[in-house]
Amino acid sequence: MREVELWQRLNEVLPGGYAAAWADQVVMEALGSRTVREALAAGIPCKRIWRAVWAQLELPETLR
User: Fold this and answer.
1) Within 10 A of 26 (CB to CB), how many other CB atoms are there?
2) Which end of the chain, C or N, has fewer beta carbons within 10 A?
3) 1 alpha-carbon distance from chain centroid
């Protein structure tokens, strides 16, 4: 997964500009106590980040 696809998915599940704020503010243990943006900066693969987001938001299996 590329970063562009990660952001597309985030914007689909968190519309209205909420994705960017959420990515800056929500700290996830699955990402080593990092936010999405911090995880990206740390070089964590986008696929791993998306899995953490998917679990955190309790999204349906179809979006995994």
Assistant:
1) 16
2) C
3) 12
Task: List residues bridging with 34 in a β-sheet.
Answer: 28
pLDDT tens for the chain, 64 residues long, are 999 999 999 999 999 889 999 999 999 999 999 999 999 999 999 999 999 999 999 998 888 8
User: Which amino acid is it at 62?
Assistant: T
How many whole angstroms separate alpha carbon 54 and alpha carbon 51? 5
User: Contact 26/16 with Cβ under 8 angstroms?
Assistant: no
How far CA 52 is from CA of 1, 8, in Å, comes to: 14, 16
Residue 5 CB neighbours (<10 A): 12
